[in-house]
Amino acid sequence: MKALVLAPFHPPTLAALRDLMPVDYESWTETRQLQHPEELGLRIQRERITHLIIEADFVFEELFQSATDLRFVGVCRAALNHVDLDAATQHGVLVVNTPGRNARAVAEHALGLMLALARRIPYLDGYLKSGRWEDPVEGYVNHRGTELEGHTLGIIGLGAVGRILAKLANAFDMNVLAYDPYAGAEGNRRDNALFVPLDQLLQQSNFLSLHAPATPETTGMIGPDQLAALPTGAFLINTAFYEMVREDALVQALATDKLAGAALDVHETHPISPASPLLNLPNVILTPHVAGATEGTVRRHSQMILQDIQRHLQGKKPLNLANPKAWQTLVS
């Protein structure tokens, strides 16, 4: 047995993996490059690699065709759109992922963006550092912020991230509403959030935070009508996916002060285009798609992958198995 780790991995967990088998560690965050799928397959076969751990690399049919010794692929993400699950199953390779690995990180980032918007923290930092703070009392007159307490947070998508954010918001004594037809029935509560219809959530939310998955149903979900339904002076936070919000409608709402501000961690391109109109709006906070980028996220996905490798070696079904048919074939 041998493992090839192409994802960032928590050092103590990497050491524990090395106790199980030889490991080559080549995180893409250190090499700054992704592997060519066909060449990677040939390498896996040449070096008799049985366990492959990835985060951003692509694992397609040609890899499974070449890598006949491969038995396990660990994906350090929840999303699996860069892995050919059908091909993995056909070749008897187990694929596990790491759902919820960055939920805490994204929820805390969303909360941080809410606070930054409410208290205008980035603007005030620039105001001071640029030498514009000349009148000692101007801040009390022209730069008053908004407290979270007593305001309503609307969360669209009450999955792992949304549930943590709801709990965090409760600590600030916020009223939390949620819209997620797959997570709970209207009128019920979960993790301090009350499930309500979308139109009610929009009409009552002073802060709107988006945490729904990317689906045809959620793409373009927040457009002109939805932004118009928000209270004047509301704030929008998007750490979900760029296409969930119509950018033209968002820019219009911000430029006309319908929205007091917006904070976005997801963008049309990475890096963001220099021509983006969002760059010139003073009431917008932008972060470079880093909501889930924490040491805690790396530690969690490393531990989840190691646990499932241990189970695999013990002949037990992995906890986060993405292609159960491969397991059924293995044990039949």
Structure description:
The protein is an alpha/beta fold and 332 residues long. The protein has two domains: 3-99 and 295-331, NAD(P)-binding Rossmann-like Domain (Rossmann fold, 3-Layer(aba) Sandwich); 103-286, 3-Layer(aba) Sandwich (Rossmann fold). It has 14 helices and 13 strands. The strands form two sheets. It has an eight-stranded mixed beta sheet, sandwiched between helices. Strand 1 (3-5), helix 1 and strand 2 (23-25) form a beta-alpha-beta unit. Helix 1 runs parallel beside helix 13 (295-313) and helix 6 packs across helix 9. The protein is elongated. The mean pLDDT is 96.
In short:
The chain contains 14 helices and 13 strands.
